[in-house]
Amino acid sequence: MTTSTCINGALPPTGSAPQALFPVGIAPVPPDEARRLEALRRYEILDTDPEPAFDDITFLASHICGTPIALISFVDGNRQWFKSKIGTEESENSRAVSFCAHGILQAEVFEVEDARLDERFVANPYVTGPAKIRFYGGAPLVTSDGQALGMICVLDRIPRTLSEVQRKALQALSHQVVAQLELRRNLTCRKQSAANLLESKRFLQSVLDGLSAHIAILDEQGVIIAVNAAWSEFALRNDLPGNSALGTNYIQLCTAAKGEDATEAPLVAQGIREVMAGECGEFQLEYPCHGPQDECWFVVRITRFFTEGHLRVVMAHENITTRKQAEMELQWKTAFLEALVSSSIDGILVVDGHGMKMLQNQRFNELLKIPAAIVDDPHDVNQRRWVKGLAKNPEKFMERVHDLNSNQHKFSRDELELKDGMILDRHTMPVFGPEGTHYGRLWTFRDITQAKQAELQMRKLASAVEQSPVSIVITDRQGGIEYVNPKFCAVTGYDFNEVLGKNPRLLKSGKMSSEAYREMWAVITAGRDWQGEFYNRKKNGEHFWEAAYISPIRDDSGQITHFVSVKEDITARKQAEDALQEQLALRERLAKIAATVPGIIYSFQLKPDGSTCVPYASPTFGEFYGVRAEDIIKDASLVFKVIFRDDQARIQASIAESARTMLPWHDEFRIHHPKKGLLWIEGQSVPERLAEGSILWHGFMSDITERKRTARQLIELEESGERSRRALEHERELHQIKSRFVSMVSHEFRTPLCAIGMAGSMLEHYADKMTAADRANQLREIEVAVRRMTGMMEDLLLHGKYEAGKTECTPSQIDVEAVCQELIAEIAKQGREPRQIGCSVEPAARAAFLDPKILRHILGNLLSNALKYSAAGQPVTLEVTRLTGGAPDENSPEAPPEDQLQFKVSDSGIGIPAADLSRLFQTFQRGSNVGNRPGTGMGLAIVKQFVDLHGGTIRIESQEGKGTTAWVCLPSPPDKVQVAASIFAAWVEFNKS
User: How far apart are CA 627 and CA 672, in angstroms?
Assistant: First the structure.
């Protein structure tokens, strides 16, 4: 039997839990979902009104199956819609909570006997909500091409099973639903076809009436069976009612024509006969129509067609008087155009849309040296090949021609360069008639070779000025600026429009004397060149230096018309010169200071290629280091060679870190001095990054050998005193531990011994007067006291065994869940009243490779503490999960390096004071808030020892008054539990089934 996932029925009422809160199983989408939805749309059934035929089928389904709910549903993309329904007020619901979404995936009847027993439906809102649906059965609605559109289904609020007869009945009813769909579709199509036919006739008549030509349709005998409005209006306007009458034989009418029509009318009759006989596909005749005041022209066209096996003839008379007049006008204009084109200085070519030359003047032939044979050829193909051979870039030429011929509306203007150096300005445009008809394309060609050469020369000069790395300014005779290049704008910060017409004096800084400007002006107005330096000011107020060269520009008569100024920003050079002078002075002062200090002043450089050098060191460097300063100016490797081998790697690493972070460098290291032996050096410096990528440190080094020697002596004295202090402290701690142990043993053993003594005395003297229940109670008191004393002795022995190194860890394959359940059962019975302990073990953690004895000690102690420090009714839980390990992550160093089992013990008891948390794992330590609860303070210490023995970790978090949680992680390699885990999982699945 096949089961389903989703369900039909009433949605939960307002206020119920939203659907997203239920873990409802969602049906997979059919592989041909697009075709299925297309088939559903084809029937146009969605969102239609109820229909009796479908309601009858729904009633039969409900009656036959004896259910209160029956539906005919169709599954859309995101919803389920009900065409017919019994027992529910809904019209649709979500596909995600629909049984039918699963039903359409099946070929047979789909049945769910009890949704509560199916894990896919147990959380469905229609099962858990007010609808309380338990049973579902349905048959898919499958079309002739195999597409399942929906279901006919029945539902009930009690579990049930369909009989074989009911199943077959549902299947039969599904066929009836599909049959109704087909019938409904056929009726719709038939109505649509009739409407389309009527609409086509109306459309055809509208088209005919909209034509200006006079149109009539004749049958096989030439009888008029239809005319358009233009035909009727023409006959009525010209008093020819017989020509427009339906049923008139037009062939006979033309044959009997007399007078002016006697010439063309018989020809028309003969043309109709020839078209009817199939002797020609079309007959056409132009004829004049002379009126009393003017002369008109008409054309008649006769064609035929077949409809429903019958021959029909279409006859159209069209007034072409305007066209005839246009043709005569065109002849005159053509003659005028040919004369105009022949006298043009441009080469002109006109080609129609079929590649035929319509017009070509003599200038075109001369520019492109067209041979006479090609000129006389009406086709443009050979002429195009000729020009291609002349072009410098023939492929580009042909590509351009093809592109323009393919785009009738495209305009173009470019240049055509020939192999002989000639450059032609080529312009082309499409030629259209007044009615928008494309006649062809007009090409014009003009020789611009000399103009291009002059333009090229000017462009070179302009480009040189525009791209010049120096500022260029052109002024008029009075000094008004007419041009500045981009470099001027970049240097000064002014836009071109801001300085246009202004005098260059807007750059004056006020830091130069007026005499210098007067001298410059006198020189250039005299017609001589001037060069010098300006200290100017930019738009933003910043000052800068410029080296300038100014020359006058003369016209053909020798008169000065303009001045051109070429200027270079030399601010950086000026600053460099000043900085050099300042650096030389600083170096001299530094040398004097360095000669007086006890250490050395130095500069250390790390270059981009990894090499190092010492550009500067105090004159005393050689005496201080044992290496000459001049030997390390270009290579600092000699400095590193005298550093102790053990210190070299650390020093290089600290230098690299300072280079990376650009933080000050400070370190201490040892060197081998050739004369003084071992020396301790302290160095400190500050880095700076140079423009070429190097890093330069400036710093100071000093000899700290004596300071190190003194510090070592002080450390030795402090270490001697510290050892004495630690020995005394250790002796004191041992004494305190012994005192606590004696006190603990005295108290903890005295209490159960008193309980045993009192219970024994009661049994000895009053046993005959006690009831059976009283005697059992006294015996239980003795048993509890003995168990308590035994537990304390076991803790002491375990602790002593561990301290002696005699405790071993022997892991083996175990069933973790079974160990936990057995342990919980034992612990829960130890108190006077049984206690509940919640336990959950995830499937991946059920099989593990652990020492079962150690695990029982660890969990037993933690669970006993949780019960001991929790009141009755407060929850105590144990959770076991597997943590998947792997290589440690540098970003998460706390992650386990291998697979581990995590045991989490939680309670809601008295908790542990924050001050006691740091001493939890010390022997004989207990929380300050335990009161009179029994305990030795050894439990957690032993737990910690066993966890360490198993290579695990333990962590405890607690808050006083709110409870305690302990996490124990023990390694359990997956390769040793893989086989056992597989067997265990199979066993679990077997028991579930």
Answer: 11
Q: For residue 292, is pLDDT > 50?
A: no
- In terms of phi and psi (left: phi > 0; alpha: psi -120 to 50; beta: otherwise), the region of 647 is alpha
User: Do 275 and 282 contact (CB within 8 A), yes or no?
Assistant: yes
Looking at the DSSP assignment, which residues form a beta bridge with residue 531?
Answer: 549
Structure tokens at 138: 């349905």
Give the residues across from 301 on adjacent strands. Answer: 284, 316
Of 474, 475, 503, 473, the closest CA to residue 488 belongs to: 473
Whether 561 contacts 476, CB under 8 Å: yes
Phi, psi dihedral angles at 216 (to 5 degrees): -135, 145
> How do residues 366-389 score in pLDDT, each as one tens digit?
888 899 888 888 888 888 889 989
Give the other-Cβ count within 10 Å of 358's Cβ. 16
Query: In whole angstroms, what is the distance from residue 681 CA to residue 684 CA?
Result: 10
- Give the model's pLDDT for residue 621: 79
Q: Please give the DSSP secondary-structure letter assigned to residue 626.
A: S
Angle between helix axes 164-210 and 52-65 (nearest 10 degrees) is 170
Alpha-carbon span 248 to 252, nearest angstrom? 9
Radius of gyration of the chain from Cα atoms?
55
Taking phi over 0 as left and psi of -120 to 50 as alpha, with beta for the rest, 961 belongs to: left
Taking CA 654 as the corner, what is the angle to CA 625 and CA 633, rounded to the nearest 5 degrees?
40
pLDDT at position 71 over 90: yes
Conformation bin of residue 267: beta by default, left when phi > 0, alpha when psi is -120 to 50: alpha
Residue 578 confidence (pLDDT) above 80:
no
For 751, what's the count of Cα atoms within 13 Å in the CB-facing half-sphere? Answer: 16
Whole-number Cα distances in Å, 382 to 392, 650, 653: 18, 85, 80
Residue 987 confidence (pLDDT) above 50 = no
Tell me which amino acid residue 581 is.
Q
Say if residue 80 is exposed, middle or buried (CB neighbours under 10 Å; 0-12, 13-18, 19+): buried
Per DSSP, what are the bridge partners of residue 80? 75, 93
Q: Quick: pLDDT tens for 950-976.
A: 788 999 998 888 899 999 999 876 554
Q: How are beta strands 543-554 and 600-606 bridged, if at all?
A: unpaired
Question: Coil, strand, or helix at residue 619?
Answer: coil
Query: How far is the C-alpha of 624 from the C-alpha of 396, rounded, in Å?
Result: 78
- Please name the residues in contact with 719: beta carbons below 8 A apart, sequence gap of 6 or more: none
Amino acid at 991: N
Give the neighbor-by-neighbor strand order of the sheet with 214-218.
224-227, 214-218, 310-319, 295-307, 282-290
Quick one: how far is CA 837 from the chain centroid?
49
Distance (Å, whole) CA 892 – CA 883? 14
d(CA 426, CA 417): 10
Of 124, 129, 133, 181, the C-alpha closest to 153 is 133
Quote the CA–CA distance of 522 and 657 in Å, as a whole number: 63
Helices within 694-848 (DSSP H only): 705-766, 772-803, 816-828
Could you tell me which residues come within 8 angstroms of residue 8 by beta carbon, excluding any fewer than 6 positions away?
Answer: 69, 71, 73, 80, 82, 88, 93, 98, 99, 100, 126, 133, 136, 153, 155
d(CA 923, CA 73): 73
Dist CA 930 CA 910 (whole Å): 8
The token pair at 930 is 């335990």
Q: Please give the structure tokens belonging to residue 587.
A: 């170096």
Q: What is the mean pLDDT of residues 685-696?
A: 89
pLDDT at residue 764 in the model: 63
> Is pLDDT at 97 greater than 50 in this prediction?
yes
Q: Which of 70, 53, 60, 56 is nearest to 153 (CA)?
A: 70
Give bridge partners of residue 305 from the DSSP assignment: 312
Cβ atoms within 10 Å of 968's Cβ, excluding its own: 25
- 280 vs 213, 270, 303, 304, 455, CA distance in Å? 22, 11, 9, 10, 65
**High-pLDDT (> 90) share of the chain, %:** 20
